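Researcher: I'd like a structural prediction for the single chain below. Treat it as a standalone chain; there are no partners to consider.
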Amino acid sequence: MGEIVWLASYPKSGNTWVRALLTNYLADSEQPADINSLGGGPIASARLWFDEWSGVEASALERPLVDALRPEVYRRMARASPDTLYMKVHDAWRLVGDGVPMFPPDVTRVVIYIIRNPLDLVASVANHTGVDIARALARICDPDRRIARSRGHLDQQLPQLLGSWSEHVRSWVDESGLPLHVVSYEALHDDPVQAFSAVLGACGVEVVQARVARAVEFSTFAELRRQEAGGGFRERSMAAAEPFFRRGEVGSWRQELSDELVARLVEALGPTMARFGYGTAG
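Model: Treating it as a single chain, here is the predicted structure.
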């Protein structure tokens, strides 16, 4: 029986980057991994996984029942796997059904929670969802924020409750009670070898420095963007105005957000931002 490593994050926080690093490290190949065949996907909310492992189509069930069945779906997947499963997830952690965790602790090895400064997150969310920055800001501050809600069509993903950025962070870090390793986008940007080595250690994977260095080399923003330009990226939203791998920078919010929008975001998310060292100074 395998265990699950949850690669959890608010959308556009670096989840795909971590998956690229893991895929390249575990493959230990002489060539960069294909960005359209990364580990940790499809996402934990993928409808196809639910339908296959529950034995019933989610479209035939009410949403609360789908949510209540998801923990058993993950248990079945873990029991059937001979190896560790690395599973991308954007849902906030929460209780479902009769008060059981959606992400069952009995098959969980660890949660790798990937966090990013919400000031930088805003523009990435705007691009990914095809809305302006002001609307994207409102979304990441919305306590009722949900994604993949089908409106007249059947989405490939099940509906996911995110909540606000702050609530999402707290749900996994403070409320889940699961083994946890937090890695920031900024740490991966500034010292990817050290930050990724710590991720591997938290996953219980042997750290071989030569392999880490090669995984980092094969997962640079330039390489990811080169692959997307050459063959596309299937996880890119059709609503996106720019490529999925857009800028890959830290601190770009200074050029993209007005003072008014910065103030609004800090007012809404400030305490959690401060807790993780995110602010507007410097």
